[in-house]
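Before relying on records like the one below, remember that each one covers exactly one chain. Contacts with other chains, cofactors or solvent are not represented anywhere in the record.
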Amino acid sequence: MEYLALFLTLLFIELLYFKVAKKFNIIDKPNLRSSHEHLTLRGGGIIFYIAAASQFITSEFEFPWFFIGLTSMAVISFVDDVVSLSNKIRIFVHFAAVILIAVQLHVFSMPWYYIVIGFVVVVGVINAYNFMDGINGMTACYSLSVGALLLLVNYEVNFIESNFIIYPLIGVMVFAIFNFRTIAKTFAGDVGSVSIAFILMFCFAKLILKTGDYIYILFLTLYGLDTVWTIIRRFTLGESIFEAHRSHLYQYLGNEVGCSKLLISFLYAVLQFGIGLLVIWISQFDFSVQIVFSVVLLSVLSVVYLILKRMIIRKYIFKVL
């Protein structure tokens, strides 16, 4: 009943937000990065933050520094959804928010290079998560997949109170009602993709600190590969990695190849879930086995990814040019 009540409450709030978004013209207009052709309400992912805020209150204000960081990220991202902000401002807030995660987790006693690497990885993943929010259902499906994997591990490891994961996932399910459609009513916007990424990265940090197993970051394998290889390609072509584009693999599949965008989102999530189950199984072995598994997995998937993308570019992109 608790979860049902939360679902219905979040559904009501989401519908209320739509009225506000329409009144203030918070609209996602198609651009060079877009994979949609219709005007769509932007910022529907604000419901992820509201779900997390509900958990924060019901948990009697657990993890206050984290929540302050999440709030700062949500606010600056929502402002960016309404009026575009400088990348420097957003990155500054992102790093400040990640510092609050570090304060919350008491990691400043660790070697400085661990902290620096951790900061870069967390900020990078948050931005990568935002980059991948490009087609109907992608953020919703992938977040549900990653969240489900974290819940499975939490059942065995108990690294965090389960509602910390469940509440935001209920928000994702509410959002999916309006986004996982052929013609989406709303997109998550920066406020949604950044907020859910921030929540998930806090969970990953808690899990890794509890177990000492970095292999769990492979729960984000597909997002990571698509983002990293796309950045490398754009960099080698002399393109700005900060400009809008449609050169991720999922965008090529949806736009150039013409695959169903809902099917692409669903398959990304299912494949990631399958990889995650393998990761959970491998996590019981020692570090050397985990390293070998990680290298083989990333190498094989990278080869498949690059071959598939090259085929699409040759058949569809060059043909058009």
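Residues 44 and 188 are 5 Å apart (CA to CA).
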